[in-house]
Amino acid sequence: MSEKVVVPKFEIPSETMHPAIKAVAVIGALLLGTTAILGFAIWHRRSEQEAAVARRDAIIAARAAEAKAAEEKAKAEAAAKELAVKEAARKAEEAKEAAKQAKLAAAKAAADQKLAEADADKSEGHHHHHHGKASAKGKSAAAAVASKSSDDKDKKTGPKSTRDNAAIDKLLASFK
Prior knowledge:
The chain starts with 18 loop residues before the first helix and ends with a helix. The chain has helices spanning 19-122, 141-157, 165-175. By secondary structure, it is mainly alpha-helical. It contains 3 helices and no strands. The model is unreliable at 131-139 (pLDDT under 50). It has a domain at 94-121 and 135-153 and 164-175.
């Protein structure tokens, strides 16, 4: 036994990592952590941008609604003004028609006045009663209508009062 036994040398891996592998693992963990932080920051910024876009769209929609409401209000005011203008035009037309009627009534009154003067001139010596168509012989058609309508009014109001021919003659003389 004097021979020495040579035992092969086996290297058993140790329980600890090699320092290079430790460095790679630490760098990988740091890279993973920073990537997670960067991903969270990007996600947060994108959600803020989407919220800002939503707020902008809401503001745009509100302004569009305000503009539409203002446009509708302007249309309503324009329609009201147009209606007022039409109403004013209608009232002006009515006033014009009333003025025409007043002129026609004044012309009828003037024709009746001339008839009364003519009757007074004819009746200075004679007292004649003229009714209806008999008094319309020398008159125009409008005066005849006016006379007939005034005769109709006289018939409705009752009998005519007796005239004082002297007072009428005196009045007529003052116009000459």
